[in-house]
Design brief:
The complex is a heterodimer of chains A (about 625) and B (about 375). With about 625 residues, chain A is mainly α. Chain A folds into four domains: about 120 residues, no CATH class; about 120 residues, no CATH class; about 120 residues, Up-down Bundle (Four Helix Bundle (Hemerythrin (Met), subunit A)); about 180 residues, no CATH class. In chain A, about 70% of the residues lie in helices and about 5% in strands. In chain A, the strands form three sheets. Chain A has a two-stranded antiparallel ribbon with strand order 1-2. A two-stranded antiparallel ribbon of chain A has the order 3-4. Chain A is elongated and about 105 Å long. In chain A, about 50% of the residues are buried. Chain B has about 375 residues and is of the alpha+beta class. Chain B has four domains: about 90 residues, no CATH class; about 60 residues; about 90 residues, no CATH class; about 140 residues, no CATH class. In chain B, strands 4, 5, 13, 14, 15 and 16 form a six-stranded antiparallel beta sheet that branches. In chain B, strands 6, 7, 10, 11 and 12 form a five-stranded antiparallel beta sheet that branches. Chain B has a four-stranded antiparallel beta sheet with strand order 3-19-18-17, with no helix packed on it. In chain B, strand 6 and strand 7 form a beta hairpin. The chains are: A mainly alpha (about 625), B alpha+beta (about 375). Chains A and B meet through helix 21, helix 22 and helix 23 of A and helix 2, helix 3, helix 5, strand 15 and strand 18 of B.
Chain lengths: ~625, ~375
Amino acid sequence: MKKWFPWILTSLCAAWILASLFPASEKGFKTREFGKLPVLLNGRVQPMDSVARNALLEIRNKQSVALENGQKLNATEWLLEVFFNARAADARKVFRVDHPELLSLLKLSETEKHFSFDQLQPGLDEIERQSERINATEPALRTTFEKQTIKLDQSLQLYRRLKNSLQPENSSDFVAELNDFEKILPEGVTALRDQQAGKPHDKAVFNEFVRMISRFDMVMRMAYPLTVPPASADTSRDNWMNAGAALLEFAKTNGIPQPVRFYAAMGQAYREGKPERFNQEVNDYRNWLRQRFTPELSKASREAGFSQFQPFYKTIVLYVLAFILGCVSWFHLSEWLRRSAQYLIVLAFGLHTFGLVFRMVLEGRPPVTNLYSSAIFIGWAAVLLGIFLERAYRDGIGSVTAATIGFTTQIIAHNLALGGDTMEMLRAVLDTNFWLATHVVTVTLGYAATFVAGFLALIYVLRGLFTRSLSEKTASALEGMVYGVVCFALLFSFVGTVLGGIWADQSWGRFWGWDPKENGALIIVLWNAAILHAHWGKIVGARGLMNMAIFGNIVTSFSWFGVNMLGIGLHSYGFMDEAFKWLILFIGSQLVIIILGLIPLSKWASFKNSPKHPKLSQPAGAR
Amino acid sequence: MADRILSFFCSLRLTVVCLVAALILVFVGTMAQVHEGLYAAQNRYFRSMLIYWSPQGFPLRIPVFPGGYLVGGLLLINLTASYMRRFSFNRDTIGQQLTHGGIVLLLVGQFATDSLQVESHMRLSEGEAKNYSEDGSKFELALIDATQGGSEKVVAIPENLLARQKEIQIPSLPFAIKVNRYWRNSRLSQLGTNAPGATEASRGFGQSIAVRELPATVKMDERNLPSVIVEPVSPQGKGGTWLASSMLEDPQSFQVGGGTYQMVMRPARYYNPFYIELMKFSHDKYKGTEIPKNFSSRVRLLNKASGEDREVLIYMNNPLRYGGKTFYQSGYDENNPKVTILQVVRNPGWLTPYVSCALVSAGLLIQFMSHLVGFIKQRKSA
């Protein structure tokens, strides 16, 4: 049984992953199909599903809405309601407000965290008044209350825009409205023209026409995603419009745009609770799109499927499981536990790779384009390195390191995703696949390797100091691993940094500008070089090597995140203060472990009774 | 003794100390950019031998840490010394030799860049041609001799000379310029009923303009706008006091010593022996966003001396290298879609990082690959 356990466990996990690839078909409204419809937002074609998820993340910090009866509304279901039944959506408790001062300002109950639009309605003027003042202040100097107020104001604006994206929010029958508009159109245009020319005209027609146009005009100004594809795919595929703009622009010449009609019909079926008609309309619209917009349709479908599959979330589960199994194997010294951890890591790595590659294909980009994808990639590279170490040493250390870094980077990525679209378009200077593939990838590999060395060193100190499990053999194996990985880290961080300089020379005309991100990368290079030279010169022993490698964690986290928080320089793309707290905590924890590592070896649990301490083995590069 | 000095400069201990000092320096220098600004922090921490600390209220300058030049210089000495002492060319050390050779080249190249590189920019609207670029922070007082009909003769006095507030002799002109006042950063306002202040100029625009002094700025997105009060002085007499300012773009005519001249304060210029003409500037944003998608300038390169006349497309990550200078697509004017801003850089050492990167990459790869191969063999046999 023990012999087969690793295989059984891994197969079960694989089955769980595969099963979610084929979700059960939906009964009633096929919201998943609606979620696959393409729109243009943030400069890129994406599915409705992504619009819904990112909007909910911004408003509620979650990708779904928990209902009072314990059930859940997924992102697309919520968005459908917002689009087509605004009054019901207004009663959903989706706005996250948790700052006590903000709650008391709005006279809301302090025992709750989520509020509905209806509940916030009385405070709208107050929020607007406050944020008008705050918007005039320097963002870096705002208090938490001020930041939360601005965030709530933005969430409310986003919500109101969503409500008016496909039809005016108070429209009870938009299909009828469109029909009326079509009927009155010829007379209305004449009446409008005559009125402007000062000629006599039909007052009633004129008034009705102007009333309708002003409703579309509101949709034009408010609508969030661009839902109407360009009239002809031959001109420019990017030329999408929102529903209001399309109505005002094309109604006169080409009649009411087809997509607007489809969406209106879906809305009608949705409000009247007719799933068959709704599903039929979605299907008809997809067929209509297929004639000219097959690439957009299939890209949106793939992205929606990817979000539903949630490969990265699943890797988190696997990494946690592998971590526990790996740690236990050290005390139990049982091979079957160690092998279980190893196999799970390989499975998780496969899934991680799938997610990484799928995103690359969707975007048509190298793996790292922003902070979010850098977290995914650092985790990926660290896990790969861990797998190699595990294969070479077979002592669980590689697996535990892989699991820890894989898990941590996925959590970081998850939190970075709260900032919005993770596949945002790249600014002109970054829009070069050559440099993204060379500089960014190598420098990120350097980060990953430095983290791996640091985590291996953590295992050395924590296991050696607190447990009796660090044998002399394991200690010298760890020393070899840290040394080797630091070599690897120096290679990649140096080459990556210099390539970055060359890129800068190509795009801004200077190789080195002492920009914070450049300096951050340089610090990693300097530190890795210092570790290796100290090791070669026998200035530090095994324990010193470990402590230096742990300090590498601090250096790398500063370079990866800290410099982005300084808010200066060409590389700073956003000020993240939530993350700042965590960065400080992480750095603090590493410092504590370094101090622990300074305790003489004779006091360590693993070496207390052994007559000699693990000696510094002769490193390969020493002269 | 000499041997001990040599061993000191060769020691790995010195290497580690220098690397750690460099790390601390880079870290502190980066943090300092938040308050001191990129440029000031660079000069203080990286382009210096020593970093000084002045206790509040004491006129002291206590050196507290080695600056970038000192640390970099020591590393360079350390590298070359150990290189010379231990140089041996065989299979085991080739990786190390390549790596360290590449680092020496990189350091030397960066010292050279640091002292020789000149950055400026060129602002062109469509149809406009220029044979000069302008400095982003320095200004100059241009004196234009229009008396010799036909071609103009221009003498430019750089800002750091004006800042001394002394009389400046100009050999090629029959008069001297006496600088009465110099403001590094200033704003102008019209003298009138509601603007307080007085003018120090007796002639020209300056008679009705008050100058207000501002503290010099270190922010990346602001620049200092200098003004001066000058007095042309010739043996035959004085030409009155004039206000010249970076905010007054039109030249002012003045007479001194029987001749008529013009003065204007303008960004310092660097002339090229060729012209660049902007033909078309394109700038796209992603649909429905403010994110720039790409920008590019189609320019015409005109060199009368060599007879060259050709079109070049300059765009992001694709500069034009010509005549020892490099022209980069750098920016655009938010208010005018027909204006491009090109960054112009003269850097004779631009190639060194490329070579050094190749050397170090090859060196490290050879070095670590031989370790890795050794390691795998050892594991296999074990």
